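In this supplementary section we document a worked example of the pipeline. Step one takes a protein sequence of length 304 as its only input; no multiple sequence alignment statistics are reported here. Step two produces a three-dimensional model, which step three serialises into structure tokens for compact storage. The input and output of this example are shown verbatim.
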Amino acid sequence: MVPMMEQLASVLASATIEEERATWTAFCRSTNRPRPAGMSVEDRTVPTAVWDIPVRLYRPAGVAPGGPAILYIHGGGFMVGDLDTNDTLAWGLAAETGTVVVSTHYRLAPENPFPAAHDDCYAVLCHIAQNAGELGIDAARLAICGDSAGGNLAATVALAALDRGGPKLVAQALLYPGFRTDGTLPSFSTYGEAPLQSAAATRKYRKAYMPDPATHTNPYACPLMATDYANLPPALVHVAAIDAARDEGKLYAERMAGAGVEVVYRVAEGMIHSFMRARFDGPAAAAEFRAVTDFLRRHLFAEA
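The serialised model returned by step three reads:
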């Protein structure tokens, strides 16, 4: 984690959202790594009535058509990030699971508050399932994965898919997710000054994505507001130990488990928010990334 922390320390405070996005992009690109040789990468769009959603397909070398796939949703506090900032995470999921990964962008806050990002990600999931043949994947073996704000969005898409009779997911991997409680859980005070995901940052992102207080009770904005978690896909809730939002993930895992959902709750000890970016910096972060890909692979390749 030390190299990433050193790079993070060089990120200057931004006065505008435009500066914040540019600074975050520069930081993320500094942590990106080249894609593996032979991996096929293709940029596409998913057309909707509102806009054409940018997506990126990663197909590892040697992966035959008709295999499983993962929808990956990037983080960034709902406000920053894109396909490029999280390229290394996306290709890593593809390389380590041996599956096709579809990485999706979405409309960003504050210009586009809830439900814009949620709606975009759900639309991409439906598009993947409906066009599985053309994409060379198996619609019966789809998983979803997201980190940070993407973890929130992955959880809400899984909820929506169940509620609406949408595409069936075989697994959901929620990485250091933010579920936007009222900020009273212990980790908000214990790790209120944690790097990247401090209590102040959490409040800022929530205000930008959910400026209308009425949305705070909507489970597609705040998954902890759901009243029924039964029949959700098996879940990995993977949190950073040093993270203001850590206990939100813990509570969500407990609620799913209480409803009979198969849940793996994992704490990355000694890690801060966004630790998946540090997998090349040392064995500890690499092991945390491997825990995610092992979980996804186990469910994507499970015998029927």
